[in-house]
Design a protein that fits this description.
The complex is a heterodimer of chains A (677) and B (203).
Chain A: H1 3-28, H2 39-57, H3 62-87, H4 96-115, H5 119-125, H6 153-182, H7 192-226, H8 234-242, H9 244-253, H10 270-273, H11 277-305, H12 318-350, H13 363-397, H14 404-417, H15 436-445, H16 447-461, H17 470-487, H18 489-493, H19 495-501, H20 505-535, H21 541-567, H22 584-614, E1 646-647, E2 662-663
Antiparallel strand pairs in A: 1-2
Chain B: H1 16-49, E1 52-53, H2 58-83, H3 87-115, H4 127-159, H5 169-194, E2 197-198
Parallel strand pairs in B: 1-2
Helix pairs in contact in B: 1-4, 1-5, 2-3, 2-5, 3-4, 4-5
The chains are: A mainly alpha (677), B mainly alpha (203).
Chain lengths: 677, 203
């Protein structure tokens, strides 16, 4: 049967089966066959429809088995809790929140069992040795490895990146929906709860997408750049990617359980009182944390122990420094968002009082715990992006990177200082007043290492031989856009001005500029730059330029207008505004600009998809890069380097006659390939 | 093991000695991460309780602390034994560790949770004493239970003869993790039982 027919059939059969399963489980539990609200029906129907779709696509994929495992585990969770409550004599036996919370906890475990991410470890317990897996699974087409558990860092990198782009698109759609609602005053088509949920979803799904995008490039590039055959812990690497998938599913599934009103920050006490969706959101984020922690542990170990001979720390590619700094934050800070969300879920389930002043708790504690991760998280998002900017500029300026050591150390400095600034989010929250001024100063101090980067970029470009292919365009836009983010920062770090600007659209403009300049633009720069490495083909330059023009123009208009409406009195996270503020035209401009950005990204994604098949075959080293990953065939072989290379010089001495970074054939046969220059 | 001899089958394969080094670093990085988790829990305790604490059974607290500290000695003994190929001592010592670990959980969850004058779910002005107490001991006990499970797996591997002075990493990893959980309790015990003046129901 045709694959498309099977997919459609699977979708429809799945939807019907999902409703049938729901009715069957409810009858089994002694409930009325149909629930009072439509949401569980839709949840079950759509969930099983996606499962059916995947099954129709290819039944033997790891992803399909993961979905089946997750569905079974969630049903087991609901049934087990209901039976437990009945045995304990609790009334009612079926209670929505405990039952589905257990389902949300067991779901990812079922997924991981199904996808096969823990199979080797379970076998190990019984003394069955499983060798490292190399190459595509036996007896299956090569593409299937991208849809299942795989240990190769390049496969995992692509899995991360593609999942990240998919989630980015989803989060973009969420934004466009509530952005359209805001285009004119009054409530048009979105219920207030739905508006709030979409704002929260846009935030957290974007964050998930960014973390996946970062993980994607870090996984793909770090082993290649340092001359390793793979990551230090390949199985753990696969695990860290796949745990992110059920986590993202749980977060989106929150929509079916009343959504959540709090935005992505999940502040208590609103999150304690909110709908059931809060639990799905928070448990999803909790499991996502495993991905961050285990992934960063892997990256740090790889960077410290698997570098090529001669590659001292200060001869690593500058991007690897950025990833190392990022990984240190992810490894440690992530525990705090997990802790704060865990405490909210426990407070909801067991009626505790951590954040309830009536029981001796304290609401501010939540914000301290939450921001202790979530501010450094901002540096998780931007540091790899800034690393990509520093990595690509010398290639396109044909000049050495200005102040290599300072750039490397400034990444570390940002990572460490990031842990000392969290309370600047709480100036208006009723926090201990003595903390305000110290946190104001520490926040301002972050501008110093960030400034080091800006001056280095300027110094690198100064009198360089600049060329402007698409990756370079995105690099330059990153610098320009990140500067807006940087300059709108100090008014928010200063206590008196922040008290006025707090929770206004000025803040929205500020952090969108940092996220676009620090992640989105560098991410696309990296995608275009390493595209020939990953696929072996060239993207379409003209489409790349169109993508660049739409995204950059759209973004400038959007973020500057956001900041301006904020100064004129527009509040964040509010579904409506007073027409008398005189900001209606600005809202229409912002909305149009948002659509322009989305359309630009669509052009980019179209370019990447189509060029993978029809693009010109890329030259071996199209950018004239000195980095070792460009001295081997594209796409890189399964184990990267046939022979370990040796680092014999500085990484970024572009344009210096006679300088060499890597010797690809240290054991002789020098004539086989001339060193890169 | 036989499969290890084929480790050099592809370019860039990792030698067993380097593999051991990286395993150790990876585990320590994971424990660094866990330190932030338990650090955050301690911060919450001091933020909410300040210089006060609830009334708890001091003898029971001391008893479970001693049990856990002694268990760390036997874990160290088990680890050293397997590194010297003394399988008998390894199995004896790790069994004692497992029993002591179970005793610790039984003491905290089975006795202290029943006996403590503060109960969770009660609400009221002193509700936070019960909440934090149960959260701290619960999170720690969860890690002890996972530790016991790891120890059981390692003991099983040792019983089957899979561990030796050549292949001792599983035992060493479980031992490091066990000591870590022990050290966490060394910080939790004074934070719960010793620091601050007693307040709460009955005072």
């Amino acid at each position: 049967m045709n694959r498309i027919v099977r997919i459609l059939l699977g979708f429809i059969v799945g939807f019907v089966a999902g409703i049938a399963v729901l009715v069957a489980v409810r009858v089994l539990l002694g409930l009325t066959p149909m629930p009072a609200t439509l949401a569980p029906v839709l949840f079950s129907g759509i969930g099983f429809a996606i499962l059916g779709l995947l099954y129709g696509f290819e039944p033997s994929l790891g992803l399909t088995r993961g979905f089946i495992g997750m569905a079974i585990a969630m049903i087991v969770g609901v049934v087990a809790v209901t039976h437990f409550r009945r045995a304990m004599g609790l009334d009612p036996a079926y209670a929505l929140e405990p039952a589905w919370t257990m389902a949300a906890v067991l779901g990812p475990i079922g997924f991981m069992l199904g996808v096969g991410a823990v199979t080797d470890w379970l076998k190990w317990i019984f003394g069955i040795h499983t060798p490292d897996q190399h190459g595509p699974p036996e007896g299956k087409p090569a593409w299937t490895r991208y849809f299942g558990f795989d240990q190769n860092h390049k496969v995992i990198g692509i899995q991360y990146t593609v999942t990240g782009i998919v989630l980015m698109g989803l989060a973009g759609i969420f934004a466009l929906i509530f952005r359209s609602e805001l285009a004119i005053p009054g409530i048009q088509f979105l219920a207030l709860d739905m508006f709030n949920s979409l704002v929260g979803l846009h935030g957290i799904v974007m964050i998930a997408a960014i973390l996946l995008g970062i993980g994607g490039f870090a996984n793909y590039l770090v082993p290649l750049m340092i001359g390793a055959s793979d990551m230090a812990f390949p199985r753990l690497n696969g695990f860290a990617f796949w745990i992110a998938v059920p986590s993202a599913l749980l977060i989106v599934a929150a929509l079916f359980f009343g959504g959540w009103d709090t935005g992505w920050t999940g502040y208590a006490p609103l999150s304690v009182r909110g709908a059931m969706g809060v639990n799905f959101f928070m448990i999803g984020v909790f499991f996502f944390g495993f991905s961050s922690i285990l992934g960063s542990m892997n990256l740090i170990t790889t960077t410290l122990y698997m570098r090529a001979p001669g590659m001292g720390l200060f001869r690593m590619p500058i991007y690897v420094w950025a990833v190392l700094a990022t990984a240190l934050i992810q490894l440690t800070g992530t525990q705090f968002i997990g802790l704060s969300f865990l405490m909210v879920v426990l407070e909801r389930l067991f009626d505790l009082g951590f954040f309830n002043p009536a029981e001796g708790g304290n609401v501010i504690l939540f914000q301290h715990l939450f921001w202790f991760y979530s501010h450094p998280a901002v540096y998780i998002f931007i540091l790899p992006g800034l690393g990509i900017v520093s990595e690509l500029l010398p290639v396109f300026a044909r000049k050495p990177l200005f102040g290599y050591k300072w750039i490397a150390l400034s990444s570390m400095a940002i990572a460490l200082m990031g842990f000392l600034v969290w309370a600047h989010h709480m100036f208006a929250a009723g926090m201990e007043e003595a903390l305000r001024v110290p946190f104001m100063y520490s926040t301002m101090l972050v501008a110093v290492p960030t400034g080091v980067k800006f001056f280095s970029w300027l110094g690198t470009m100064w009198r360089g031989k600049l060329s402007f292919p698409t990756p370079m365009l995105f690099v330059l836009a990153s610098i320009a856009v990140f500067l807006i983010g940087g300059l709108t920062g100090p008014p928010l770090a200063t206590v008196p001005t922040d008290l006025f600007l707090h929770d206004s659209y000025f803040v929205v403009g500020h952090f969108h500029a940092t996220m676009f300049g620090g992640f989105v633009f560098p991410f696309f720069a990296a995608l275009y730059f390493w595209y020939p490495k990953i696929t072996g083909r060239m993207y379409n330059e003209r489409l790349g330029q169109i993508h660049f023009a739409l995204q950059t123009a759209g973004f400038y208009i959007m973020s500057l207008t956001m900041a301006r409406t904020g100064l004129l009195g527009m509040r964040r996270r509010i579904a409506d505004y007073d027409p008398d503020l005189g900001i209606q035209n600005l809202h229409i401009i912002m909305t149009v600009a948002g659509f322009v950005i989305f359309f630009g990204v669509l052009v980019g994604v179209y370019n990447l998809i189509v060029s993978a098949r029809k693009g010109e075959v890329a030259a071996a080293n199209p950018w004239g890069s000195r980095s070792p990953e460009w001295q081997i065939p594209s796409p890189a072989p399964e184990h990267n380097y046939e022979e370990p290379f040796e680092v014999v010089g500085e990484p970024y001495d572009y344009g210096l006659p006679g300088s060499v970074y890597v010797d690809m054939h240290p054991s002789g046969s020098k004539t086989a390939a001339s060193p890169a220059h | 093991m036989a499969a290890d001899t084929h480790a050099h089958e592809h370019p860039g394969a990792i030698s067993p000695a380097k593999r051991l080094k990286m395993n150790r670093v990876g585990l320590w990085l994971f424990l660094l991460s866990e330190t932030f988790l338990f650090g955050g829990i301690l911060v919450s305790r001091f933020y909410l309780w300040g210089a006060t604490r609830p009334e708890l059974n001091q003898n029971l607290g001391l008893a479970v602390t001693l049990i856990l500290l002694i268990s760390s000695y036997f874990m160290y003994r088990a680890e050293t034994a397997i590194k010297h190929d003394d399988r008998g001592d390894f199995l004896r010592s790790i069994s004692v560790t497992i029993i002591l670990g179970i005793l610790f959980v039984a003491g905290v969850v089975g006795l202290e949770w029943q006996e403590a004058p503060i109960k969770p779910f009660t609400g009221g002005e002193f509700g936070i004493y019960g909440d934090i107490f149960f959260f701290m001991t619960g999170m720690h006990a969860f890690h002890v239970v996972t530790g016991v499970i790891l120890l059981m797996i390692v003991a099983y591997r040792g019983y089957k003869g899979h561990l030796s002075s050549e292949n001792f990493w599983p035992a060493e990893a479980a031992a490091i993790y066990w000591h870590f959980v022990d050290v966490v309790w060394v910080f939790f015990f004074p934070a719960l039982y010793l620091m601050g003046s007693v307040v709460g129901p009955g005072h």
